[in-house]
Amino acid sequence: MRIGFVKMHGLGNDFVVLDGRSEALPEITTTLAAALANRHTGIGCDQLVVLDGSDVADFRMRFFNADGSESGACGNASRAVGLLHGRPARIETQGGILTTEPSEAGISVDMGVPRFDWDAIPLGFAMDTLTMPVGWEDLRDPTAVNVGNPHVIFFTPDTDAVDLARIGPIIEHDPLFPERINVNVATIASRGAIRLRVWERGSGITLACGTGACATAVGAMRRGLVDRRVEVTLPGGRLIIEWNADGRIIMTGPATEAFRGSFELSDFPA
Ligand SMILES: N[C@H](CCC[C@H](N)C(=O)O)C(=O)O
To answer: In the predicted model, what is the mean pLDDT of residues 185-200?
Structure first.
């Protein structure tokens, strides 16, 4: 059975998008998601995105990391699907309902209300999540935010100096994080600008992470380090994050359709 896909990206954070609304899709197992995402033996992407029908929104969107694990949110992919949809959309995700709309700066996504309680992140035990009394080598006293998926955020004088490829997986898999964690290393450039690099749970270092930008911006705002509208610069480019008066996170940035293709399902393990 041949299955169509759209290859997309948001600031280089790339996706294979399957649309179950237009064709029958197989069950997306961990094995199949990881095989499709594999850059050597599969199509290759940071996340596999699967669309299908919804009773509560225009459609449902699911996200699978490169290791096949499912995530509750994916900011860059939400903008990519918003672009594909071409008009404002309400989208059901595991992390809640989000809305997208085209804007002059690309696509805006209402990512909803962030959560901060230790058991909403989740952490393995009760802890202050604004300034956590923990550390890994030089990365210390982080903050944690759930924006539909879990993030820990470290503020450091120079994010580029951090050996993220080495320390990222150590933190991702620490027992403090029962669902693992996305690891954000941020430098505050000004009250309106943050530089950010991310080790993503289940996918490793990516060129950009939309939920990471949202979580980092909100974490910095909670600490009084930046204003309520901030530009986050990642290796792949820039996003605008606003934490509005309703307590909702609005992320705005580009999204790109790269190409369309199809694959033979029997070429991949179930
Ligand atoms: N690249 C995504 C983040 C995926 C998050 C995933 N790594 C997880 O939470 O497991 C983004 O733009 O928000």
So the answer is: 98
Give per-residue pLDDT as tens, 106-141: 999 999 999 999 999 999 999 999 999 999 999 999
The preferred substitution site among 74, 76, 145, 199 for testing ligand 1, maximizing ligand atoms within 8 Å of CB, is 74
Question: Ligand 1 centroid vs 75 CA: distance in angstroms?
Answer: 7
Longest dimension (CA), the chain: 54
CATH architecture of the domain with range 135-247? Roll (3.10)
38 is in an annotated binding site: no
Contacts 24+ apart (CB under 8 A), 180-183: 180/69, 180/150, 181/121, 181/144, 181/150, 181/151, 181/152, 182/149, 182/150, 182/151, 182/152, 182/209, 182/211, 182/212, 182/215, 183/151, 183/152, 183/154
Out of 34, 74, 107, 183, the active site residue is: 74
Which of the four CATH numbers 3.40.50.300, 3.10.310.10, 1.10.10.10, 2.30.30.100 does domain 2-102+255-267 have?
Answer: 3.10.310.10
What confidence tens digit (pLDDT) does each residue in 3-28 have? 999 999 999 999 999 999 999 999 99
Structure tokens at 48: 């596999």
**Which mutation among 8, 65, 94 tests ligand 1's pocket best, with the greatest number of atoms within 8 A of CB?**
65
244 known ligand binder: no
> What is the CA(127)–ligand 1 centre distance, in A?
24
Does residue 45 have an active-site annotation?
Answer: no
Domain boundaries, the chain: 2-102+255-267, 135-247
**74 noted as active-site residue:** yes
What are the pLDDT digits (tens) for 71-89? 999 999 999 999 999 999 9
Kindly state the average pLDDT of the residues 144-156.
98
Q: Do domains 2-102+255-267 and 135-247 have the same CATH topology?
A: yes
Q: Looking at this predicted complex, what is its ipTM?
A: 0.91
Q: What is the pLDDT of residue 270?
A: 87
